[in-house]
Amino acid sequence: MAKAKKIYNQQSLSHYYNASQFRIDTWNKLKSTTRQIANGGTNREKNIEKVRELLAYLAPVEIYWAFPGSQVFQQLVRDEQLEEFDLLANKVSRIASALLSGEYRRKHIILDGAAETEAERDSGIESAPYTSFDRARKRPYFEVLIVDDLTNAQAESQRAALAGMRRDEDRCTYAPIFVPSLDDALIAVSFNHSIQSVVIRFNFDLHSENGLPVLSKYLRDTKLDGIDDVDSSEYGIILADAISRIRPEVDLFLVTDQSVEDVAGRVGKTCRRVFYNSEDFFELHLNIVRGVEDRYKTPFFTALKTYSSKPTGVFHALPISRGKSIIKSHWIQDMGEFYGINIFLAETSSTSGGLDSLLEPSGPIKEAQDLASRAFGSKQTFFATNGTSTCNKIVVQALVRPDDIVLVDRDCHKSHHYGMVLAGANVVYLDSYPLSEYSMYGAVPLKVIKESLLKLRSEGKLDRVKMLLLTNCTFDGVIYNVQRVMEECLAIKPDLVFLWDEAWFGFARFGPTYRQRTAMFSAAHLRERYKSESYREEYTRYQDETADLDPDDHEAWLSRRLYPDPDQVRIRAYATQSTHKTLTSLRQGSMIHVHDQDFKSKVEESFHEAYMTHTSTSPNYQILASLDVGRRQVELEGFELVQKQVEMAMVLRQTVMTHPQLRKFFRILTVGDMVPAEFRESGIQSYYDLEQGWNDIWNAWEIDEFCLDATRITLYVGQTGMDGDTFKNKVLMDKYGIQVNKTSRNSVLFMTNIGTTRSSVAYLIEVLVKIANDLEQEIEDMSPAERRIHELKVKSVVEDLPPLPDFSRFHDAFRPSGELPGDEGDSRTAFFLAYDANNCEYMSLGDRSLDDAMEAGRDVVSASFIIPYPPGFPILVPGQVASMEIIEFLRKLDVKEIHGYRPELGLRVFTEEAIQHQMKR
Ligand SMILES: Cc1ncc(COP(=O)(O)O)c(C=O)c1O
After folding, report:
1. CB of 388 closer than 6 A to ligand 1?
2. Mutate to test the pocket of ligand 1, among 385, 392, 415 (most ligand atoms within 8 A of CB)
3. Is the bond preceding 821 in cis, omega lying within 30 degrees of 0?
4. 297 φ, ψ (degrees, to nearest 5)
5. How far apart are CA 896 and CA 648, in angstroms?
6. What is the per-residue DSSP string for 53-88?
7. 117 band by pLDDT with thresholds 50, 70 and 90
8. What average pLDDT score do residues 5-12 get?
C-alpha cells in the first residue's frame, strides 16, 4: 500500500465524505488512466504504476459488492500483470459506466470482447439503451450478504447453489456477497445499500483485516463496546442486533448451531427467521425472496391498478372517471394528452370492487397503512390526503379539550395556531433561541420547556397540561434531542403527550444518524428503557439525590437532569409528516404516526372523530396510491437515497467552503453558526473543515441538545449586498431558474432531497460561481460613489437587523379567570371576538398613534394573526398584547407579504371598549 500514497494520502482521503464517493472516483481514475495507457499516451510507466495503486485501493473496497465481483476483480489484476492494457481499459470502462448508471442491476454486463465504438464504450456495454418502461418490467435486483468465514472455493460453490434455486416465478433476483467477519458485515451493510438480506452463520471472526480509513469509519458508529470479551457463540446475536440498528428494514436470517428455540426467543424482534445448522438452500432462497416481496408489495396501488383495468359503467358523480368527460370533449382533449389515460382510469370514488374507504379502512388502504406503520416504526399510521396542515389539526383535536393547556413553539407552522383556536386550548407559547445575526429563530431550549412546566406545576395546573408541540426539524434544519426532551418533560408530567411536527423529517427514519432523533424511534427506545432493570437503578439513584429538593425551587430542578418514574410514565408520541415534502408522494400526501400507550384506551374514538372532522369524503386515490408506493421505496431504497442525499449536501458544503471565488461572497452556515455553543456539548463547529476534512458527527448527534440537518443548506449572502428575497427572486429565479423556498434577511435556504443529483449540485455551484464572478466585475467597475452605496447595502443586510421579538403576553381578558394568571392564553375567544367588526379598529404603523397609545398606558391587543413571510409564523396572535419590540420589528421588516396585515389600514386591534367588556365576563 506504500506506493499508493502518491494518489491518496491521509489528507486527500479524509476529504472523501464516504466510501461510495471514494469508490466511484477511484473507478473513474482507473478508467482514464487505463485508457491513456491503451491509447499509447505519454508517461506510460508512471501510469502503469498508478493503475497498480488504484487497483490496490479498490481491492478492499470491492469485497463488499457483488458487482463486478471478486472473480472479475482478480482478472483485472491479472490483466494488469500481463500488461493487457487494451483489454483492461475496455473492461474497466464498462465496469465504471455500469456502476455509475446502475445498469448492472438490470442486465448482465458483458466485459469480454472489444467495444465497437467510442460511444458504446462510454455508455457501457452492448445493445440499445432500455426505455424506462423496459426497466420497470425487469426483475428488481438486490444483494444478499452472507457472513461466514469461507474459502474462495466454498464461496463459489454456495454462490452456484443459490443461483440454482432461482425460479421463474421469483419477483426479484439477487447476488450473494461473502464476508468473513462481524466488522466486515457492519461495513458492508453501511456501505453497500443494495444489500436487502443478511444471512448470519455461526463461524466468523470478529475483526476485519481491512484498514482503509474510509471503510473503518463506518465501524465507529456501531459502538460494540466490550465485544472482544464476549463468547464467540454470541457473535451472531450481537451482529443481528447491530445491523437492525443500522438498517432495520433489512431481512436478517440467523443460522445457528445452538438450541434454535433459545436463539429464536432472543432474536425474535430482529431476525426474520432462525435456521438450525441448515444447508437447505432452497428454503433460504424462498425466505430471501419472500422477505423482499413483502416490502415490495403495495396493496392500495395494486388494487387501484387492478380496478382501473376492469371495464365499469360509471353512474355516479365523477365525470372525469375513466376519462369520459375528457376523451369526448371538443375542447379539453389536451388535458387527456398531457396526463395520459391511466390517471383518469384510476379516478374513482368507489370504495368497493377491491378498493377501500379512507374513512373506514378495512381492505387495501388499511393494509397499506399497516405497512407504512412497520416502515416508519409506529404503532399506528394514518394516511392523509390534504397535507400535514390537516394532520396537525386532527391530532390536536383528538387529544386536546377546551381549556387544556398546550405548550407550543411560537414559530411553529400556522396550522397549529389555527388548531389551537379550533380546539379551544389554552396556549403557552415557548420562545426559540434567536439567531439575530441571520434574522431567524433556532428551536426551543429544553430549559425553557422545563421552566414552563415547573411554573405550571407550582401554579397547580399540571393536571390541565396536555401536550407539548414542537417542530422537528425546523424549517432551517435545527433538530431537537427528542429522547432527552421527552425524558425530562416526562419527569415533570409523566403522561404528557408529544406532538412532533416532522413535516420536513419524513426521510429521517432511513438514515441511522437521523433516525435516533425521530419521534417514533425515540418513543420505542424510551419505552424499552423504562422497562429495564438498569433504568430502575438509575431512577433510584435520582430519587435519592432529589429527595430533599423543594419542588418550587425551579433553579435547582433546572440545573440538573430529570428522570421519569418508571411506574408512572406513559409514552405518548405523535408525529405528523409531509411525505410529499421529503419522500415520494404526490403533493398533499402526508402521514400521522402514533406511538401512544393509551391510544386504544383513551384516544381511538376521539381520534376517529377528529379524522372525520378534517378528512374529505372524496379523498384523492392517486395521492393514497403514491403514499403506498413511497413506502415501498423507502423500505427498499430509503437507506441509499438518504445516504446519497446527505452526500450531495456535503459535497455542496465542501465546495462552497473551499472554492476561492465562492468564499469571497458566500458562506454556508455551519452547525456552529446555527446552534449556540451552550447547546453543543460535543463542541462540533462544522461538519467539514479545511484542515481535518470531515468531522465525526455521530457523537454530536447523540449528545448535543441541538444539531443541524446537513441536507438543508443555508447560504449566507450578506456580502453580496442583496437581501435574501432579492437574491432569491432577481438572481436565482429570474436569471438561472433556480427555485428556493425560504429566505431570511441575509440568507437563502437550499434544500436537497432524495432526487438531488450530482449534476444538479454541479449546476448550482456553476451558477454561484457565475454570480460571484459577475459581482466581482460589477464591484471593480463601480465609481467611488457607487462603491459607497454598495458598502452601505452590505452593512444594511449584515448589521442593521431588527432584533427578533419574543412572545409578549396574552392580555388578561384572554387568560382563564378564577385562578392564578399564568402564561397560558385563550386565543380562541380572541379569535371569535374579532368576528364582530365593532370590536376592532385599525392602528397605523406609519405614524405615532400606536406609540402614543402605548406610552399613554394602553394595552394594544391584536385581533388577528399577523404572519410575515418570511419568517412565516405569527409575530402577533389574537389576544396578544403588542410590545414596542414587536412594533419596531414590523416596521423594520422589508418583506412584501405580511398575512393578516393591511398596510393601507394598519394593525387590526381590539377597541378598548371590547377589551373592557371582555374583562368583565
Ligand atoms: C413545520 C411545518 N408543519 C406543517 C406544514 C404543513 O404541511 P403541508 O404543506 O403538508 O400541509 C409545513 C409546511 O410548510 C411546515 O413547514
Report:
1. yes
2. 415
3. no
4. -70, 140
5. 33
6. HHHHHHHHHHTT-SSS-HHHHHHHHHHHHTT-HHHH
7. very low
8. 65
